[in-house]
Inverse folding.
């Protein structure tokens, strides 16, 4: 018996007028989006306009968990009706519990308050949703990436026809990718055969003060921490080239095969810049790939006053450059540069028919997926390219100069205080120091700095960080806000002193009570 087409049941159900469909439609309604966006923009405008001195309001996680759970709809069966008050409360809670990066009281981390226009373009990126690893998926982002590569390479100085740049989601991923490219150049068979066929254990040479992402990359790549060659640094955290050479030679005598030297342009702890020109010569003598982790400090290339900190960068093989630090973009946005674009393609050796074209054309020439880990990648270049297109280089240079100048001002002010001790002269916008009043037991200095930092964070007026320098904690400020003035620095110094004195009095009282208790 045969059936006609009319007898065959369609695999596609007829459209339904169930109440779930109107709810679904409403959630995607452009008019609803317009009203919501205006409410949120008004809230963020007030947020940006708040110039009060405030730090982090650190809330008990259980309290915040309860508050956030209370904002979740109890509806489970149907699309809930839109509740504008619920959205406003979520936005308010989000803003109020975050680090106030636009406040003059924020001096604690290396991520920045963003140029407001960059935030708007980030919103556009979220709505149009164009993953940018392939040209066909994100046409303008891929073109913008090429344009920004050319713009920024003018300050690096590589051959414009030979270099390459790719965006990655953060400096850690960029460092890992660069080390992978370096390893594959030194050991071409390792991708297919593994490390067992290498003539000696692959090794990486790094500073004692290198970012932890580099040592983490060594573990991910299977190199292992025992194959990390630690190069001596001076008291400010800069690699000593004169002492590094014998360390490299000794490592080779132990059978290690170093393939990469990682230098820093702005260390995380003290903002130190390694001597790149001398390290480039050292790398050439030992046939090493020179990777520069400039996640924080590479942006100084845009400043006429501070560009010299990166003298020798043109001799590097690769460079990590975070735009979400001193280019003031939304995180994450990292630019990974290669001096030789063929080396960039050497990081990965894979083909996949569902994304990689068998016959390259004018479109696939703009793809970046063959040079990075990410297949689906946010168009993170768009905020940077837009702000650069609208304002130009001077916006970035002026803010960088301002931040570095205020950090030097902080150094002068703190150095003049008899009960403070600076740990170094700032090379960029990072300064470390300690509160050390006369007569203080040196053994108690570490705990005092920790307690001061924790109480300042709990006070909600300033937000600073801490770092261990030569085994002793130090207070650390990162000047990321161009609105910070000398008056704000004086307020911070006074608050540190008041808290430090309070901690010392409490400690003295506790010791006194303990002695009296032991005598009773």
């Amino acid at each position: 018996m045969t059936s006609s087409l009319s007898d065959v049941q369609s695999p596609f159900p007829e459209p339904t007028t169930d109440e779930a469909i109107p709810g679904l439609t409403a959630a995607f309604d452009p008019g609803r989006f317009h009203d919501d966006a205006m409410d949120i923009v008004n809230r963020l405008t007030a947020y940006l306009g708040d110039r009060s001195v405030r730090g982090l309001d650190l809330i008990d996680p259980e309290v915040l968990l309860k508050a956030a759970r209370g904002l979740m709809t109890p509806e489970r069966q149907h699309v809930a009706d839109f509740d504008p008050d619920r959205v406003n409360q979520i936005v308010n809670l989000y803003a109020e519990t975050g680090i106030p990066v636009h406040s003059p009281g924020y001096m604690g981390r290396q991520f920045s308050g963003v140029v407001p226009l960059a935030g708007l373009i980030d919103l556009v990126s979220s709505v149009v949703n164009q993953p940018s690893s392939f040209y066909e998926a994100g046409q303008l982002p891929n073109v913008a990436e090429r344009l920004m590569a050319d713009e920024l390479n003018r300050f690096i100085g590589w051959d414009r026809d030979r270099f390459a740049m790719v965006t990655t989601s953060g400096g850690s991923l960029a460092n890992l990718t660069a080390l992978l490219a370096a390893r594959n150049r030194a050991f071409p068979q390792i991708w297919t055969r593994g490390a067992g066929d290498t003539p000696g254990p692959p090794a990486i040479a790094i500073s004692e003060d290198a970012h932890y992402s580099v040592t983490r990359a060594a573990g991910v790549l299977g190199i292992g921490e025992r194959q990390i060659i630690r190069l001596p640094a001076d008291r400010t955290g800069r690699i000593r080239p004169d002492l590094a050479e014998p360390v490299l030679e000794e490592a080779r005598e132990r059978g290690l095969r170093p393939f990469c030297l990682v230098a820093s342009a702005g260390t995380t702890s003290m903002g130190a810049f390694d001597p790149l020109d001398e390290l480039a010569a050292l790398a050439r003598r030992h046939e090493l790939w020179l990777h520069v982790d400039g996640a924080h400090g590479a942006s100084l290339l845009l400043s006429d006053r501070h560009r010299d900190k990166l003298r020798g960068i043109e001799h590097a093989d690769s460079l990590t450059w975070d735009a979400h630090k001193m280019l003031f973009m939304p995180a994450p946005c990292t630019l990974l540069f290669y001096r030789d674009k063929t080396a960039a393609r050497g990081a990965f050796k894979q083909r996949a028919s569902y994304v990689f074209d068998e016959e390259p054309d004018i479109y696939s020439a703009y793809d970046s997926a063959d040079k990075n880990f990410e297949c689906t990648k946010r168009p993170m270049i768009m905020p940077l390219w837009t702000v650069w297109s609208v304002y130009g280089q001077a916006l970035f240079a002026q803010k960088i100069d301002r931040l570095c100048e205020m950090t030097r001002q902080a150094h002068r002010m703190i150095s003049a205080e008899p009960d403070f001790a600076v740990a170094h002269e700032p090379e960029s916008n990072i300064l470390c120091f300690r509160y050390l009043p006369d007569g203080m037991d040196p053994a108690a200095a570490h705990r005092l700095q920790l307690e001061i930092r924790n109480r300042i964070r709990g006070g909600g007026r300033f937000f600073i960080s801490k770092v261990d320098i030569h085994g002793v904690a130090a207070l650390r400020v990162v000047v990321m806000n161009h609105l910070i003035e000398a008056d704000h620095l004086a307020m911070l110094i006074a608050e540190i002193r008041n808290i430090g004195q309070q901690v010392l009095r409490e400690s003295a009282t506790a010791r006194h009570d303990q002695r009296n208790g032991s005598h009773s």
